[in-house]
Amino acid sequence: MPYGDPNFGVLITCRCKQAEKERRRYEELERLSNLAPLRDKTFATFDRTVPGVQRAFARAYEYAQNPQGWLVLFGGYGCGKTHLAAAIANEALDRHTPVLFTVVPDLLDHLRSTFGPNSETAYDERFELVRDVPLLILDDLGTENTTPWAREKLYQIMNHRYNYALPTVITSNRDPKDIDPRILSRMYDTAICRERIIIEAGDYRRLSLEQRYHSRRRRGDSSRARTQE
Questions:
Q1: GO biological process annotations for this chain's record (predicted)?
Q2: Fewer CB within 10 Å, N side or C side of the chain?
Q3: Is this prediction's pTM over 0.70?
Q4: CATH code for residues 46-228
């Protein structure tokens, strides 16, 4: 850096080292997300004909195109929450947007694992990665082991993302009153979370399977009728 340059004397990270750091960060997010088994969970494969899921689908699709603020999806087991959350994550991957998709208990396990003697990642490094990721998707909030440590770490992550308005998707099958009130108050702040969607649907997977079965039967009956004509 020549004398007189505004950056003279300022320590600047080499661009190649910065690029390598970003590459490792992206790979770590992919590894922690483990989205390979869920790569088929896209908006195209989501069955919108199941009663009660249309509004959630529309809002999740809209959010995936431009992730801003928080999106919260409440609903019972099997109502399609995880499919929609994974679809948002897969959309981000396709756009090369750094994203972390994780079930909340797994997230806490990932943090705890850094304390092990064989861990190659320091706790602070992983915590910062989770806290600051451009898009964080937390599946099954409320199913985690509610130890004081777990509650505090989760609150620290959520509070940081709330303060900096970082895009965050949350799914939960729990009654809101069972969620840490400190986190719940942030989920209910309309300044950052414009909408909380309650998916009032039955078991999406079972209903979707039944509908596909009956649809195939109807197509088969129609085909046989045309043949008989």
A1: DNA replication
A2: C
A3: yes
A4: 3.40.50.300
